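Input/output pair, single chain:
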Amino acid sequence: MSKTQARRRNSPDPIDIAKRFTSIRERSLELAEPLSAEDQCIQSMPDASPTKWHLAHTTWFFETFILGAYSDGYAAFNPNYNYLFNSYYEQIGDRHARPERGMLTRPPLSDIHAYRSHVDAAMQAYLEQSPENDILELIELGLHHEQQHQELLLTDIKHALSRNPLNPAYHPPRPSDATRNRERGWTAHAGGLVEIGHDGNGFAFDCEGPRHKAWLEPFSIASHPVSNGDYIEFIENGGYTTAELWLSDGWAMCQEQGWSAPLYWRKNDDDEWRIFTLSGLRPVDPDAPVCHISYYEADAFARWAGARLPTEAEWEAVAKTQSCDGHFADANVFHPMPTRAEGLAQMFGDVWEWTQSAYAAYPGFRPDAGAVGEYNGKFMSGQMVLRGGSCVTPEGHIRASYRNFFHPSARWQFSGLRLARDAVRSTGDRPAPDTDGADDFRHDVMQGLSSLPKQLSPKYFYDAEGAQLFTEICQLEEYYPTRTETRILTDNAADIAAHIGRRAMLIEYGSGALDKVRILLDALEDPVSLCAIDISAAQLQTATDELQAAYPGLDVLAVEADFTRAVTLPAPKRAPDARIVFFPGSTIGNFEPADAEAFLRGVTKTVGMGGMLLIGIDLKKDLKTLIDAYDDDAGVTAAFNKNLLTRINRELGADFDISLFRHIARYNAHAGRIEMHLESRTDQTITVAGKAFYFTAGETIHTENSYKFTPEEFEALAARAGLERTGLWMDSDAHFAVMLFRAAG
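Output:
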């Protein structure tokens, strides 16, 4: 185990490490490229560092902890650099004072570039020697360390450029999307015993573990981070002049520093707020998340709003139900953006969110011996935890368990806040059980029935009975998608396999399409493995057992998870040439457009550069064919829809009378989607988990959307997620399409 990682269950992939080493090292130079040599030497305050120093220090890390320790015959580029570019590792030796880093005009920038090239060449040669797992984990730590410094490079140069009266831009502004969602609400969490900390899948810093249980009282968390518009109200309402809103140390700091607005905010001659950004001085967008505020300011705002900051355990309990998608540095915008998303949004990216938790060791935490063990543990004093990443955080660097930390007065990071509040509990309330799946189901049902209009997620259709009913649906004459897609795959299997290539790792999202998977496996040349991902443990077990029996030489892997969220894949026995996500059945149509794009971005991240997505798409067609497919004469689809109410009765103690709801399918031409609803036949009150929900006659629960596309529409959607089309196969009636995409980055 590497000395600064939480204990992990899988080993790094050496091929992946080598590829990421090259791309991450190149990204650092790419971020520095817009800056002049003079820009890269400047240090605007002791807490910041020059760009040149960041480039050198991240190189020093690999030279010191990898090459110097493990590479026989490695010759240091310059022995003096050990003193100049050590940051805080006491066991390595003396080091140059941090506040003096900006005085280092020499070595010149050209020497630092030569230093990076020297170390990179030695590292690439060393990686070809197949280092042991412990060393690979240390290299992976170095890569995440460099990604941390990529973020610091941007925050530090922003602070430096902000001190220039010319307001210079690091890069030109990018056009922003004018569409945005201004609706704000709350997401309830029932509390109870939850597990917090890294789960052992993939990389994590040591401070993210050990994974442990934490008790949460019921609470609610805001659906969105606090916006600039919200914060302006706080300012105009005397937020910076009302002492009782502030913690004692915060009020003293506010007075001492003369704070009256977030860092980088200024008023122009027209009394309008503007903010210095990495694109120069720009108007403050009222809908974007507020950023560059200290913990003290975040806490004062929360008090003013009649709320509080979430604890880091509360934040993580909510965040782990979401995918790690968001607005990150990879977009090259480097400023928080408004969102179009409804419901819980922006948990990841845009701004780091202050929590009310002090940065402290988790139960059982023990830093390892040696210099690398100094990475996190010794800073567990006087710091507050932030969560979620920001618009300058590299996308692949973040996860729900990630703990960032800064002094409560720090403002130069992209730090904002999200509100939380305690729930009002009745005597009979009980916390949710200690089961992630049950907790998610209860939470989503209660939230969906509390919304207007009422709605439930279609992902909960597939309990054992629901899965069986869907199998029956697929055999109906009216339900064309299954047989049409199967025919397309059968008729074009050889061509599809040729497009994919040999030694593929096939990743099936959902485990119910065994016939279609077999068509692909039979056609592919030397497939490495099949990894099935499904929310239903029973269906997953049945599917993988059947596939393993049919293909005894194939490495069949299983992951019980919700594939709409971030999933860490197990490593196959053989390294694949490419990863291919297989997503048949036109299930992508069940996603809202923004969610579909986010999902496709997640696929892009899962398969990696050059990986592929083979996906089934239900095409737009005549109305009768569409409606008949979702409202069959035998009533199987109606039973499938109503089974969701039966599941709620069984698992949440509800009292739905199924006979008092009828199944409805209709086509929304404006949105381009089939909608399924359950309509109440009468006025009635239903109790779910002890809470009453009132239905009027004719009121519906919206249970499913199934969006339909033209090939051009879906290709455009996929392109926004970094996927380029490489193959298209359709039936003769143009009812359905199978499309192949390659991740272009």
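The longest helix spans residues 133-162. The chain is about 35% helix and 20% strand.
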